[in-house]
């Protein structure tokens, strides 16, 4: 008897609490889908704060379309299935107009079907492996051709590197990037014996053997460099081991794609001076827009030592573009905004202009920076102009015939130029 | 030739040194050029300075290489940055006198600007410095200089070395110079075959990388006998190198073993002796690592000694936390090991979140003391990293101390008595509650000390403990619960096995193979390598 | 004999809650489903699809908690590796769903899933063969966890690995699988796992009707598993199992092959976990190696501990309550959640060794002494 009432009470209160009634649409809702707890919180919390700062900023300017912006923050807790669940919550319960979110590829892949089903709109601000273009996602981070390939060109042309160690954490981003790089290097005439590929698990901490192998590989007379797609926590022990085994940047430079200012803030950079990173943005770039952004950021976080990084710039660009597109379209309707987004131009923080292309990827400059002992990067090289992000790599056999074009008449994220067919889209 | 001149200049400079000259030995125009030139065009300027100033440029180059060279925005004077009591101050590069005078405040960060260098320039600077240092007074510096020049010998360098070789008194330096000259001869197609063969013979005794690379190139020589000799020499070198590679791998294994030992030895006490499953053990390690971080924060100018403060501090912090946990939670769950497991897991979550709240989820920066950085180079193919060497020694020391405590002290006697037969011990007047708390405190304290060591190898972050908990349990179970020697043997054998598997299987598969092996091993021998004997074992 | 029977049907007994539980469960399920499908969206009683998938997820977790409870609460085997069986069942379903995508993947390859094209694989690995058949995949979802449990249990229980040793070994097992599934060479999609599913046995996975059906199937299967488990545990077999929990050596001396009982119970539990995993994947839309992580497996144990181990209904209630709290708390105070979860572990083990059902039993016992007549009625 008692149990029955207890159970039904629980079920009822559960159902009502879960199904919180959604508010009336007198504000424009901006969903934030970044992990605030768990392993990815380290990186993603920063981006949540960036979006909140941008929302606050926009509201000071009077909001959009005469309405105030309202940020809706949820925590997917670094749990991949939870990204889909929270994404659904944002779109279905909260009825947000746009989502800024995700860091890892798997979290994006997890939320993607929900976005496509409910026709949501998401901005993804992190460098990734490419090989994707969804109607409902705008990719404001770098595609491999905006990070990896220019970095390798720099190594070959400027540093005279002839041998390459492709070291990465074993997941899809390093796997794909290294596949692309391997094909690219071979096309450049680098022999297979001059390429060493190594994968390690997440959070790998014992780098002795691998660093020693790299040292051996690099001591065979040809100038050697390490192209690192090592992720997150594994970097600190990796760089420490490099320093201790006496590998300096002059002997074997390491160019990293996942190490930015924020990662360096947990490291004694003294022994790392001269190692490289390739990004589309560095905090040290001198421009008015950047200075303003950094000042605002430090004021917003109330921390004078907080650093900025590339995914933050990507969030910044994405937000600005979305705001412009909404103004242009005069509505927050996803289809209208999606079309208005294409061709949007926004000043980036490094003194140039970012353009949103037909494939939902940005055109951005590529910068190579050297680590300094103050935890910042010194830009030592940059591309002459901007590089357009390529959704489908030309160096992978599976995707070299694919293009993405979200304008009429193609309107497809993976259009095969040979068979003239668009595969696997639900819409 | 120009180096001879430089040498004379240097002698002259030495004579005139006592006179405190404010005049820099490098002309102001050149220094201004250095300040004004863009990074990408800096190399020719440095070359110009090298050519005109020779040895005088050494302090300038060294400061530049270290990234400590700044210039004063107002005057374009070049100054070197140094740290005094945590303050950034600036000194004359050549005389090491503080430019502002020590009693006055230094430049603000906006008044000076750093002269940046990049990789290319660093490579160039190193070679320039090596060239200058060939005539250094210290034999060790001279030897390093010759080694640094081996990789890219040019005609100029060879000439200088030829000139210096007969005069060289130090045996080691002379050997290195001989090697350089032999390299030159072996590569010289104009030299007679017999002299080239003799040079190759000399080279075959060296393990230097550059020697090996030159020999590899020589295997494509036109002359058949040179090719044969080069191949023979390479084979000889490879044989020796392989032997050292084996030692290298063994060291890696021992090092990994020492990390496993440190991580698991505290557990061997709490789990092995007390029978308590402490899932928060990893967090005790984490607390130790954070203690190191805090100690370094408190004494920023004495990083080199911070470790000696951190070790006892970490022992106290983790030990006290251990006593607290034992008193508040574990003692109430006596005889319910599975519940203890769950409760301590809860504690581990709380501690992680606590650290995350206090120190932020970001990794914290723990510096390595200078005496722990770098490596001990035994020969060009074998060098042992110092931090790991120290940690290996430290792990063994901790182990010995722990064994001594358990064998020789009255606490140890009590601990053994309680672990063998609690009721009997109680009957004999042993205060079992006190002993339990002390034992748990000891085990946790040791884990904290392990944290100090691990902070030198890996991330200091909230997840530090998680990374080691499963491995530590594996070690203790594999070695045999309640047997410290078993833990030692298990840690080192697992470490070595992993490192010898890794080259063929890769890191992930090696870890999986070791795990599966332990699972199967425990099914076969549930009590581990060294089962505890005696009546109390059941 | 009658006293013995009475003893079994009181206190820790499983029997008397079965009917009310099944009725309540199915009633809520039907009402929620109907409210989702037939009520207009602006109705006050409308249940959103989000809520339906959330409830479906909770029910999968409840089934998993049931599996953990069966061996921990009734046989005293604390498995810290049940996440492995759950994930294996999930992967079997995931592989089937992946094959159903067919040539609608982004690369348009007729048989290979996208991630294989992506990594330049030429043909399907052998263990993917047959996975395009629903019945085959479902057999695998049950068989693989069952087989793993059998091999592991057979080895462990025969050599009398018990207590904490066994717990640590199960943890090592799921950890080893975690590492293995992270490897891209394994052919299970590495860290990304399997996702982007399109349809299940011909029904569009994104349609509300499919979601509701999946939810109803989950509830139905949970009810069936509940009833079967209750039957098994109150049978002769179940009594031996209880005896093993309370005094293993004694049961062995009486002549029972305790290792066999343990192995089969372990296998049964693993199979349930596998089924739960297979139901979980189409509802959340992704399966990846994170499900193998040891932390997940420990969390399952805490669901059971909170609800009350040794009572099937406790496991179900524990799983639903803890997960509901998690959904709420992580939304409101993400930082506080881990404190709360940690404190819950400590509190429950220290003060509520029998969980919420223990409190309930105490209350009932009080009522029994206060109003003996009424309680007799309710038992009849």
Write up this protein.
Chain C: InterPro entries: ABC_transp_permease, ABC_transptr_urea_perm_UrtC, LivM-like. Chain C: The chain crosses the membrane at residues 21-39, 45-64, 71-93, 134-157, 164-182, 212-229, 261-281, 301-324, 336-353. Chain C: It is a multi-pass membrane protein. Chain C: Its main location: membrane. The complex is a heterotrimer of chains A (427), B (538) and C (380). Chain A has helices at residues 2-18, 41-60, 80-93, 105-117, 148-159, 172-187, 208-218, 235-244, 261-264, 288-301, 310-329, 334-341; strands at 27-33, 68-74, 98-101, 122-124, 137-139, 163-169, 195-200, 224-229, 254-256, 276-279, 345-347, 353-356, 362-364, 367-371, 377-382, 387-388, 402-405, 412-416, 421-422. Chain A has 427 residues and is of the alpha/beta class. Chain A has a domain at 148-256: Response regulator (Rossmann fold, 3-Layer(aba) Sandwich). Chain A has a seven-stranded mixed beta sheet, with helices on both faces. A five-stranded parallel beta sheet of chain A has the order 2-1-3-4-5, with helices on both faces. A four-stranded antiparallel beta sheet of chain A has the order 11-12-13-16, with helices on one face. Chain A is globular, with a radius of gyration of 22 Å. Residues 1-24 of chain A have low confidence and may be disordered. Chain B has helices spanning 2-16, 28-36, 42-53, 58-65, 119-133, 139-150, 155-164, 171-187, 193-203, 209-218, 224-273, 281-298, 303-328, 337-359, 386-408, 410-420, 422-427, 432-454, 466-479, 484-505, 507-524, and strands at residues 69-72, 78-84, 87-91, 112-114, 375-379, 382-385. In chain B, helix 4 packs antiparallel against helix 5 and helix 20 (484-505) crosses helix 21 (507-524). Chain B is mainly alpha-helical. Chain B has a four-stranded antiparallel beta sheet with strand order 3-2-1-4. Chain B has a two-stranded antiparallel sheet with strand order 5-6. Chain B has 21 helices and six strands. Chain B has three domains: 2-17 and 28-124, no CATH class; 134-218, no CATH class; 244-370 and 384-533, ABC transporter involved in vitamin B12 uptake, BtuC (Orthogonal Bundle), CATH 1.10.3470. Chain C has one domain. Helices cover 72% and strands 2% of the residues of chain C. Chain C has 16 helices and four strands. In chain C, strand 2 and strand 3 form a beta hairpin. Chain C starts with a helix and ends with a helix. Classes of the chains: A alpha/beta (427), B mainly alpha (538), C mainly alpha (380). Chains A and C meet through helix 1, helix 3, helix 4, helix 6 and strand 18 of A and helix 2, helix 3, helix 5, helix 13 and helix 14 of C.
